[in-house]
Amino acid sequence: MANQLSPPFGTPIIAPHYCDPGPHPVHLIITRERSIGENFTVTNSNGNIVFSVKSNIVSIVTPRRHMYLFDAYGNPIVHLQGSISSDNWKAFRGQSAESGDLIFRRERSSLFQLRTKLNVKATWFGSSWDVYIGDSNILVAQINKKLGTIFSREKYMVTVSPNIDHAFIVALIVTLES
User: Fold this and answer.
1) Phi, psi for residue 172 in degrees, rounded to 5
2) Would you call 13 exposed, middle or buried from its count of C-beta atoms within 10 A (0-12, 13-18, 19+)?
3) Which domains does the chain have, with CATH numbers?
4) pLDDT tens-digit series, residues 26-53
5) Which long-range CB contacts under 8 A does 75-82 form with residues at least 24 apart?
6) How far apart are CA 67 and CA 21, in angstroms?
7) Per the omega criterion (within 30 degrees of 0), is the bond before 23 cis?
8) Could you tell me if 80 and 174 are in contact, meaning their C-beta atoms sit under 8 angstroms apart?
9) Residues with Cβ < 8 Å from 69, sequence gap 6 or more?
């Protein structure tokens, strides 16, 4: 099943309206902005902004990393909270950090703590990733990293299967790359 996306389970993780019913995959371009902190702009194949990700600078007062995923209209969708001492992330609805609003956790050791387990497998050079459901061969997203130069920004070319929550895939990518 190499390089083909399978039409999978269709369970929304962030929201059902981010699960495009298809029949074609969703193609996104995530561009890392040149700024202080981790900021990203996400566009579709027509160049329209779909999401943006903004980060807060870590300080002694807030010893966690915080990033916020916004929709195209600037509405907060997800608050991503990362640990400074480890590569663990929690994702909460909107701007919340309350346990009742927890959507998912990403931990480097087990990768995800979700109702449905996901695994991310990377190629040798780490420039592309495939996202599968659990230990199955159901491929739900492919990410190809294009390294930037002095004159260009780093980009991620993303293909998300139909019925897969592409807001979740974006949140996953920015936590893996921050």
Assistant:
1) -60, -45
2) buried
3) 24-176 (2.40.160.200)
4) 999 999 987 666 799 999 999 999 999 9
5) 77/14, 77/15, 77/51, 77/167, 78/14, 78/103, 78/167, 78/171, 80/53, 80/171, 80/174, 80/175, 82/175, 82/178
6) 28
7) yes
8) yes
9) 51, 52, 53, 76, 77, 78, 80, 167, 170, 171, 174
**pLDDT tens digits in sequence order for the chain, 178 residues long:** 344 444 445 668 899 999 988 789 999 999 998 766 679 999 999 999 999 999 876 555 556 688 999 999 999 999 999 877 677 888 999 989 888 889 888 776 544 445 455 566 655 456 888 888 777 788 889 999 887 776 668 899 999 999 999 999 999 888 887 7
**Residue pair 52/70 in contact by the 8 Å Cβ criterion:** yes
The residue with tokens 């309206």 is 17
Q: Tokens for 102?
A: 């927890």
Count of beta carbons in the 10 Å neighbourhood of residue 168: 27
- Whole-prediction pTM: 0.83
94: left (phi over 0), alpha (psi -120 to 50) or beta: left
